[in-house]
Amino acid sequence: MAPTITFPPQAAIEILDGSNWPSWSSRMLALLRMNGLRDHVLGPGPATPSADWTAQEGMLLGVLEVYIQKDVWIAVASDTTFPTCKAKWDELKRIYGGVGQMSTFNVWISLTGTALDESKPMLPQLQKLNDARAMLSSNNMEITDLQFSFILLKALPESYSTVTTTVLAGGAPSSLTLLIMQEWILNEESRWAGSTTLLNKVAPVKIRSDKKDIKCYYCQKSGHKSNECQKKKQDAEEKKEKEKAAATAAQLNKVVNAHVLVPTTARITEIPDNEDNIRVFLYSVACPKWLVDSGATHHISLVHSDFVQYTLTLGIVSLGGRAELAQIGIGTIAIQAQIGDRVARITLHNVLHVPDADMHYFSITVLLE
Known about the structure:
Elements: H1 21-34, H2 39-42, H3 51-66, H4 70-73, H5 85-97, H6 101-112, H7 122-138, H8 145-155, H9 161-169, H10 178-193, H11 230-253, E1 257-258, E2 269-270, E3 290-293, E4 300-301, E5 307-318, E6 324-339, E7 342-353, E8 360-363, H12 364-368
Parallel strand pairs: 1-5, 3-8, 4-7
Antiparallel strand pairs: 2-3, 5-6, 6-7
């Protein structure tokens, strides 16, 4: 009587493609156990094979060839090199089931070369790709969500070009996740199948209306979508403010010269022309009155004609914490000071020209220095 092997309908044995060894081998071993054939791949076999054993071996070789992808089977097809089911099984396990460079390389090739089949349910195919990613991860070869999303886009059939275009055109690449990609693909599958046909099969992704089940991909919190995320809006506003401040700082950095008049509690005294008890009288051609300021760090004039030497120099000055004014030049001013009965000529150097100042400023600090 010829040997037989029984396949229960629920067994759902998949094809070994090199990336799915863990799931394929476990199901195949369960099937062989049910049929009493497990020793053919795990051993040890009989020292002297009987006729029944030999017949079972031949039948099982055929089963393995049927459930192994052609390009994978080629590696163990030689009956000379791998004469028994166990020899072929051990070699397949070494190539696709072990931890090492060969296994990692083959799984990587299988993963990146996968093409999703639109005629078959998408969810099992996506799960198979995810299993391959997990296997690579266990072999210390991590694949990021962004890399895996791009692999999925490459694997999509041409009829899913809408998904590819939509994903690539929307949002930052860093926002792509496996969940988002899977929802796009399965929703597109449902759209192609129509509202009455669900491809077998796989329930389409349910768009949840319950707020508590919604998760924001920006802040990772539940209860809202990313376009409703307050943290996202706040971060965007803060970023805008920082960019504005940086632009302002960059503009100010272009100024050649910047001077600050330090605010102090020093008393500012106006020196009039006709005060007899004041021994020093300061005046200029355009404005005879000056403010003597012990808190000023520079002399300041608002009249260009005061200067006997002048250089165009841009800068910013702050009048004691009040409005910042533009400095447009710097130079030398010659003034006359009446000391007793004689008039002395005094030269002030590095005087700032600030046209919008409300008064001339005479710096006591500069004078003392």
